[in-house]
Structures are given as structure tokens and as C-alpha cells.
């Protein structure tokens, strides 16, 4: 039991400890609840992080296609990383190739036999390391360019374009 201090405000320390314990219990419950769920945007970001890019024949971004595929199968709560890692082990394809196969209707991630979770985690770790290396390289390139070209005068002027389709955003931003 923690050391009890005299309260300058005359607050009962037993009540304070009880309130702290209740808050801890609530926070633990919330964290456990949230861990079971993800969001479409987080899962799409993971797809992009793992190198999935481009669009299908309907101009829908491939990360959206992969996430929508898992959502339709009721498997999104398990996370796209699990299914991509498993598919890589099963097929030997890259995340980009897997996404294209899903877009073409040739691959169902939920129908593949599930591999050992430690093997899947190894694949996910490798993909993450590669993505982080790419990000670090881009940061270094940006730093080099700033040193070479200088930082433009501030404030920066920009326009936010957000249609939900990054490729359409580019077209609108250029207009």
C-alpha cells in the first residue's frame, strides 16, 4: 500500500486511493477494448507503409481495396499486417503483388492457411524495418536538399485538398 500523506485540503486519502484505483481500472478496460479495434484509415496507412501503391481498374487506391476486402470479410479487426504477413509467407509475393491479386479478384486473404504467428511477426518486422529505412533515407534527402537549396521564406502557403482519393487530390491540387 502506498505511503499515506496528510492532505492540506482535508481530503480523505483512502477515497483518493480508491479513486485512483477506479481510474486505473477504467483506463485498463478502455485500452483492452481499443486494442481489439482499428480504423480504416489506420489500416490503409499500414498498407502504404508496407509499400502498397497505385489504383485498381476503377481508380480506387490499392490500399483501400485491401482494407475494404478485409472489412467485407469481417476480418479488419485483426489488422491488415497480420493478413499481409501471412500472405507473403504463403505466396512469396510482395505486398504490392498481393494487393493487385486482391484487386483482380484472384486472392482472398481470409482463405489462406494461417502460418505460425511468430513467422508472421518476423515478416511484419522485416517490412517495417524496410519502410523505416525508406523514411529515414527521405529525411536525409530532405535535410541535404534544405542545406543545398535553403529553406523557403515562411509562412508556407499551402492548400489542403482532401477528396479521400489521393490520386484525385493530386489532380485537384495541380489545378
Automatic annotation (TrEMBL):
Residues 9-175 form the D-Lysine 5,6-aminomutase alpha subunit domain. The lineage of its organism: Bacteria, Thermotogati, Thermotogota, Thermotogae, Thermotogales. This is D-lysine 5,6-aminomutase subunit alpha. InterPro entries: Cbl-dep_enz_cat (IPR016176), Lys-AminoMut_A (IPR015130), Lys-AminoMut_asu_sf (IPR037086). It holds the Pfam family Lys-AminoMut_A. GO terms for molecular function: catalytic activity; cobalamin binding.
